[in-house]
Amino acid sequence: MLDIRQLHYFVAVAEDEHVGRAAERLHISQSPLSRQIAQLEEKLGLTLFERSQQRIRLTTDGRTFLEETKAFLTHANRLESLAARLGRGDEGGLCIGYLENAMHSGVLPTALRELQVERPDVHIALYNYHSAQQLTGLRQRSLDIALVCEPPAADDPELACAQVLNDPMLLAVPEGHPFAKAKNFTADDLAAQKWIGVMHKEGALRHDNFVAACAKAGFTPNIALEATEPLAALGLVAAGLGLTMVQQSLRHQAPDGVVLHELSWFSYRSALWAVWHRINLRPLVEHFRLTLLDSSAMLASAPALSSKTPALAGTGK
């Protein structure tokens, strides 16, 4: 294995064509420098210099070796600089798993925007996986961060987590519906309506949890249509095909023809959890984790309904 220090010595002697001057530039004695050059030649099995009493100069092979050595040392410096940037988390890649809710709610886009401003050289790869697939990816170290609807067990030896979204639900009704201008809703009012359900990719669990929350509130939704994601459900509401409930973070994405109401008495929440491996090998992962948590806190502090949202707050059962 080549000694990088000896290569630096070789370049200095080759550039100065004088051992004494090179030794002075390198702040070492002449004898140790000559010895290091001789050891390098012996290790290589190559004569690098022609020596005489008056001067020392490169052989033909020595000139060829000098060009390659300079290129090698330049690359070594680049590697050292890259390692330093990676160590600070300024460069590298992140593999992030997510659910649609992470996008719709703004949690993930907000964090990514912040990361891009702070560390523009970081490469991001996004994977839209089911929660179970994401957790498997974390355990196998193919994902760095996962955004899932259910957290891992509290005593999981490998994974840690934090909640980044706990979104209350808004009632979405067509603009021409009698409920559009109503101020109060009862469970009986909602039970008598046609509903548009949202069957998430996560499967029946979230759907069942929503229906259970409805039952707890005192009504069973009469689901006449089902959409695969909440924005599609809002489009069906705008077409006058029924009512639905969507998470509060989607309020700004409601299309024309949809009126949103708060239901303070409805307990169901749309949750999102950030999960990561307990053994963090890279500073970049930790930096993004903190950015994600900060972004979610900022979104959580936003007002529930802005003055631009065509909505009235429904209260009481």
What does this structure look like?
The chain is α/β, with parallel strands linked by helices and 317 residues long. It has three domains: 4-87, Arc Repressor Mutant, subunit A (Orthogonal Bundle), CATH 1.10.10.10; 92-164 and 271-300, Periplasmic binding protein-like II (D-Maltodextrin-Binding Protein, domain 2, 3-Layer(aba) Sandwich), CATH 3.40.190.10; 168-269, Periplasmic binding protein-like II (D-Maltodextrin-Binding Protein, domain 2, 3-Layer(aba) Sandwich), CATH 3.40.190. It has helices at 4-16, 19-26, 30-44, 60-88, 100-104, 107-118, 131-139, 187-191, 204-217, 230-238, 283-300, and strands at 49-51, 56-58, 92-98, 122-128, 145-148, 159-174, 194-198, 222-227, 244-247, 258-262, 269-277. Helix 1 (4-16) crosses helix 3 (30-44), helix 1 (4-16) crosses helix 4 and helix 6 (107-118) crosses helix 11. The longest helix has 29 residues, at 60-88. The N and C termini lie far apart (79 Å). Mean pLDDT is 85; it is low at 305-317.
Q: Give the overall shape, derived from the CA principal axes.
A: rod-shaped
- Low-pLDDT ranges: 305-317
Structural class: alpha/beta
Would you tell me which CATH topology of the largest domain applies?
Answer: D-Maltodextrin-Binding Protein, domain 2
Q: Helix tally? A: 11
**What is the name of the CATH class of the largest domain?**
Alpha Beta
Assembly form of the protein: single chain
Please give the share of residues in helix.
Answer: 40-55%
Number of domains: 3
Q: Gap between N and C termini, in Å?
A: 79 Å
Radius of gyration equals: 32 Å
CATH superfamily of the largest domain: Periplasmic binding protein-like II
Mean pLDDT, all residues: 85
Give the second-level CATH assignment, the architecture of the largest domain: 3-Layer(aba) Sandwich
Total number of β-strand segments? Answer: 11
Q: Give the ordered list of helices and strands.
A: HHHEEHEHHEHEEHEHEHEEEH
Q: What proportion strand?
A: 15-25%
Main beta sheet: strand number and arrangement?
7 strands, mixed
